[in-house]
Amino acid sequence: MEVWVGAALAVGTGMCAAVLLVFGLPGTWLLWLVATVFAWWTDFRWVGVETVGALLVLATLGEVLEFWLGASAARRVRPSWKVTAGALLGGFVGALAGAPVLFGLGALVGSLLGTFLGAAAAAGLEGAHLREVLLIGREAMRGRWRGFLAKLAVVFAMSALFLFATVF
Question: pTM score, two decimals?
Answer without folding.
Answer: 0.88
